[in-house]
Amino acid sequence: LAGLPQAEALGLQVFHGGTTLRDGRVVTSGGRVLSITAVRDDLLQALGEANRGAATIHFQGATYRRDVGQRGVRLLQQPLYVSRGPGAGVPVHVFLLFLWGMALAENVPAAASTSLPPRRALMYKESRSELGGFAGFFDLKASGYEDPILVCQTKGLGAKLQMAQACQRHGTLGQDLVALCVNALLAQGAEPLFFLSYFTCGKLDAEVTEMIQEGIAEACRSAGCAFLGLEVSELPGSFSAGDSDLAGFVVGALERGQVALGLQRAEEEDVLLGLASPGIHGRGFGAVRKVLLVSSLRCSAPAPGSCGNTTLGEALLSPARLYSPALLPVLRSGHVKAFAPIAEEGLLGGISRILPEHVSAVLDALSWKIPEIFCWLYKEGNLSAEEMVQTFPCGIGAVLVVQQDLAQHVLGAIRRREEAWLIGKVVAPCHTGGSHIEVENLVEALQLGSPQGLLGTAAGHTQHQPGKKRVKVAVLVSGTGTALSALIAYTKEPGSCAQVVLVISSKSGVEELRNAARAGIPTRVIDHKLFGSRSEFDSTIDRVLEEFAVELICLSGFRRILSSPFLRKWKGKILNASPSLFPLIKDGDAPQEPPQSGFKVTGCTVHFVLEDPGPRAVIHQEPIPVRAEEPEETLSERLKEAECRAFPVALQLVASGAVSLAADGRTSWRQ
C-alpha cells in the first residue's frame, strides 16, 4: 500500500478492513481494504477531503466509491427547520446532525438548486433561522404565465395521522397530504407551483420525520411542483410523546382568462364522472375508530379480501390519489363544467358542493368499484347505506360534471392515466325533501363487494360451520379466464364452505398457474394437443381430479369441450359462468345481449354444466345495466367484473348445499 502517510497527514482517519502486515509493510488481504473518514464543519468540505485522501492511496486493483455522502447533500437541498417551543429556534444543521449523524456547517448555503421542471428553474429556497423559519422565492414571470392569478390551499390529515401512529405506518402520509392540497387546487383549475409543510410532535422521531419528508418530496415530484421544505416543531408541553399533527400549504396559478370551474354550470342531462381512490379521510376516521372498537380485527390483521397481502391498517391508511398530472389538461380543455375532490366530507357532501340548488343527481353504485375496505366497514360497523355515503368516499376520489355528448371523450382522456367511470347524471330536482343526491343500488354494491357479505348473504344461511370439512374444488383454466383470483380469495375467507385444492390448465405458462402457485395451490398442465382423442384427454383430467379427491369443478375460461361421459360422471358438480342472463346456448364466449340489440340489461350467469344446457340449471345471476352508446370493450370489462362477483356466490351456494341439481336437471334450493 502506498500513500497511507500522506492521507493521515491530511488529518484523515484511515480504518483498516482488508489489510495485513508483511515484512513490516501494510499490504492488502482482499475484500474492502480501507475506509477513509474526514470530519469537518461542512459536509461538502468533508466529502472533498475524504475523496482527496482516497485518491492519495494506491495499490494494484484499487477502486473506491465516489457517491458516498451524496444523499446527505440532496437532503440539504430540502432544508428542515426545527422549533422546540416558542422562541427556541434551532438552526437547520442541528436537526440534520441528529437525523443523519453528519457534522454540518454553521451556515446552510443561501441558495440551492432543485430538480424542477424547466420553467421552474428560478425557484430557490433560503434558510432564515433568524426569522424562525425559512423562505422560498418563486420567479412567477419566468414560470411562463402572462397574467396569472394565484390560488392557495392548506390541508391537514387530522385523525388519519393518529391512525398512522397507532398502526406504526407513516410511509403514505406524505402523498396523502400533497394529494389533498393539490386536488383542492384543481377544483379551481389551478396548477400547483410550490408546497410547504409543517409537522408538530410531542417527541421527535427521526425515522418517522424522514419518512414523511421523503413521501412529500416524491409526491411533489409527481405533481410537478417544488417542495419548499418541512418545518418541524417539537412541543412536549402541548403534545404527548405519541401525538403529532401534519399540515400542508400549496400555492398554484392559473391565467386570468382561463374558464373557471363554477358552481352554477351543471344542468339537467349532464353526466358525472368518478375517479377511483381507495382512501379514507376527514370525518371518516371518526367512524373507523368506532368500528374498530367493536371489531375482532386489529390493524395488524389481514385486510378483508387481501389474501394476507395487506393488513387492515394499511387498507385503512390507503392514500388519496394525486390527480393533477392526469386532470389538469382535461380541466383546462373547457369540456369540464365542475370538479370536486371527494375527501373530508364523504361522497354526498363532495358532490353537493358542485351542484346548484335547481338540480339533483342520481348515482348508480354498481357502476364503479367500491373497495372491499368500505364494504367491510359497512358490515362490521353495522352502518346504514346512507351513513356510508355521508361519511366515506366509497371508492370515489373526485367527481367531474361534463356535458353528455362529451362524456366518452373526457372519460377516455382520463383513463389514459387514471381509473374512472361514468357514475351518474344530473336530473331535475326532487321534491321529497332531504338530500338532492340519490344513490341507487348502494346496498347491493356494498354487499357484493364484501367477501363476508357475499358469503353471508348468498343464501341466507350458507356460512361454513366450524368443524365441518370444506368442499374440495378444482378450477380448470386455459389462460383466458378472469375469475380464478376471485375464487381463491373468497374460498380463503373464514365463512367459505369451499377450498380450492387444484388448478388444471390446458396450456402451459398461463397467468392463472402463477396465481395459483403464489396462493400455495397445486397446479397441473394437461395439454390437449398431446392426446389422440377428447375422451383420452378427459380421462386424464378425471384421474388427476380423483387423485386430489376433488368434489366440485369450476370452469374459468376453460376452452375445451368436455365429453359426454365426463359430463355425466360429474353431473351437478361442474360450474361455469356465461356472459348472459338469457337462456343458455352452447356458444358462451361473447355477450349474448350486445348494446346494439336493444337490451337494457345484460350480465353474468353461473350455472351447472350439462350435456344439454338450459335456463333450468342456473345457480346465480349478476345483472348489469347496458348504458347508451357504451363501447363493447367497456361492456366486456364490466361483464368480467360481474363474473368475479357472481362466481364466488354461486360456488358458496353449491358448496354449502343451499343449491343443488335435481334429477330432472333443474336447480333445487334447500328449504
From TrEMBL:
One of its GO terms (molecular function) is phosphoribosylamine-glycine ligase activity. SUPFAM superfamilies: Formyltransferase, PurM C-terminal domain-like, PurM N-terminal domain-like, Rudiment single hybrid motif. InterPro entries: Formyl_transf_N, Formyl_transf_N_sf, GART, PRibGlycinamide_synth_C-dom, PRibGlycinamide_synth_C_sf, PurM-like_C_dom, PurM-like_C_sf, PurM-like_N. GO terms for biological process: 'de novo' IMP biosynthetic process; adenine biosynthetic process. Residues 1-73 form the Phosphoribosylglycinamide synthetase C-domain domain. Pathway: Purine metabolism; IMP biosynthesis via de novo pathway; 5-amino-1-(5-phospho-D-ribosyl)imidazole from N(2)-formyl-N(1)-(5-phospho-D-ribosyl)glycinamide: step 2/2. Its EC number is 6.3.3.1. The keyword Nucleotide-binding applies. This is phosphoribosylformylglycinamidine cyclo-ligase. It comes from Piprites chloris. The gene is Gart_1.
